[in-house]
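Recall the central idea of this unit: under ordinary conditions, the amino acid sequence of a chain determines the structure it adopts. In this exercise we apply that idea directly, starting from the sequence alone.
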Amino acid sequence: MDTKVLYVTAIILAAISGGYYYFSGSSQKLQVDNASSMTSTANNINLTQTNEKGELTVRAEADRLEQNLQNKTSKLENMNASMYKQGQVESTYYAKLVNGYDDNSKVVLSQGVVATKILQDGQLEFKTETLTGFPKTQEIETDKTVEVTTPQAEFISQGLKANLNDGQYEFFNIRGKYEPNS
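Accordingly, the structure predicted from this sequence is:
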C-alpha cells in the first residue's frame, strides 16, 4: 500500500511539473508571436536603391516611417522621392502622407501630392490630394481633382489613370487652356 501511494504521488508531481513546463513554454511562445506584430518606426529616412547593374533607380527621403511586418503595411510622413532611368531623373513624387499596402504593391499618396514626369521638352506635373500608385506595373490613378501642367497646357481633370511605362494618360472631364508651340 505504501508503494501505491508513492506511485500516485510521483504521477501527480510528474503531471504538475509537465503541465508547468508545457504551459510556461506556450506562454513564452505567445509572447514571441505577439512581439512579431510590433510596429517598427524610424525617423529621418534616406533611401537609395539600385538595380542589378548598380544603376540608381530610386532616391527617397521621409521624415518618419512606420512599418507593420505582420500586416505588410507602411506609412511615411513628408515623403520626397525621385525615380531614375539610365542615370537621369524620370519622375518625382511628393506627399505629406504615404500609406503602403501588401508589401507596397499598392501605395496611396495623400495630402498635397505633387507628381512630376520629366519630358524631353519640359515636365508634366500633377497636383492632387490623393494618388494611388502600383510600383510593379508603374501605373497611377485617382478619382480626385487633378491640376495638370505641361509646357503647352494647363488644365483640371476630375480623375486620372496613367501607365508610366508607355506614357498613356487618361483624363476625365477636362477643363483648361492649351497653347501649342509656334
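The first helix runs from residue 2 to 35.
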